[in-house]
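Quick note —
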Amino acid sequence: MLAERRIETEAGAQREAFVGSPTIRVGGVDVQPPADDTRGPHLSHYRHRDGRISPLPDPEDVRDALETATP
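Predicted structure written out below.
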C-alpha cells in the first residue's frame, strides 16, 4: 500500500517522527535513516552509495527496503 502524508507543522513532524521531505518509509522504517535526529518540516538530503548528495534517497536503498519487506 502506498500512502502520501502531508506534514505542515512542527507538532505534526514531531508526532510522525518526520525527518524531512521527502521521507520514504517501507513498513514504517525510513529507507535511509538520517544520521542525526533532525525532525521537522524541512527538505531532506540523502547521501547516495557513491558519495553524492541528493534530494532523493539512493534508488538502491529503496529497492533493498522493498525487497526486505517482501515476503
